[in-house]
Write a structure and sequence with these properties.
Elements lengths: L1 H22 L3 H27 L1 E2 L9 E6 L1 H4 L3 E3 H5 L5 E6 L4 H17 L4 E6 L1 H4 L4 H10 L6 E3 L4 H5 L7 E5 L5 E6 L4 H12 L1
Parallel strand pairs: 4-5, 5-6
Antiparallel strand pairs: 1-8, 2-3, 2-6, 4-7, 7-8
Helix pairs in contact: 5-9
Length: about 210
């Protein structure tokens, strides 16, 4: 009888320790699941917003601005140029708003480079770094990105946020297409695929 009593006491103490262990679990463990679920929901919402906002937008009028050339001075002049001088070259023009710390820009710029290599004789390309004015980078991060991605199309930085305001840049990246007469041909906010970009360029040079 004494042996059975001691066994029962050991089981009771073991059950008590398991209960105590559960009560003593670190507080952060109680919040891990809600945090992970909340993060997943937030990511889905963000991707939905990006998918909804990306695409063709209303066409705006061309607006002049000054910018400092990072590279491509031999193509568009420099080291400081007005955008109307670029349009005066008389070719269809691609104005690409980007930033050094913009993940969609990083993903898209290789496609822009490939299309530049295919159309550079017929179309003028200009990448305008507006990271300072969108909270997505600096001159240093912009230069580092074009170096990392081996970007060779003309690029530069405006001294003020005037082009950001003039072209209502609310999404990054934003691409504005101009015809050979300097009129806005099309506008695209958010990511644009290489195939979509190529199709627009084909239409512009016809």
């Amino acid at each position: 009888m004494a042996s059975k009593g001691r066994a029962k006491q050991r089981k009771t103490r073991a059950a008590g320790r398991r209960t105590s262990d559960r009560r003593a679990a670190p507080g952060w463990q109680r919040y891990t699941a809600p945090i992970l679920i909340g993060g997943a929901v937030g990511l889905v919402v963000l991707l939905a917003v990006i998918a909804f906002t990306a695409g063709e937008q209303d066409v705006a009028e061309a607006s002049d601005f000054e910018f400092e050339v990072y590279q491509g001075e031999h193509i568009i002049g420099g080291p400081k140029v007005n955008f109307e001088e670029v349009l005066a070259i008389g070719k269809p023009t691609v104005l690409y708003f980007w930033a050094g710390n913009c993940p969609p820009c990083r993903a898209e710029m290789p496609d822009l480079q490939r299309n530049y290599e295919a159309f550079q004789e017929e179309v003028t390309f200009l990448g305008l770094d507006v990271g300072v004015y969108t909270g997505l980078g600096s001159r240093r991060s912009g230069l580092a990105l074009i170096d990392e991605l081996n970007v060779s199309y003309p690029a530069g930085e405006p001294p003020t946020r005037r082009p950001v305001n003039a072209y209502n840049v609310n999404a990054m990246p934003t691409t504005v297409f101009f015809d050979a007469n300097g009129e806005v041909f099309r506008r695209w906010e958010g990511l644009i695929s290489g195939a979509q970009l190529n199709a627009i360029l084909q239409e512009m040079v016809q």
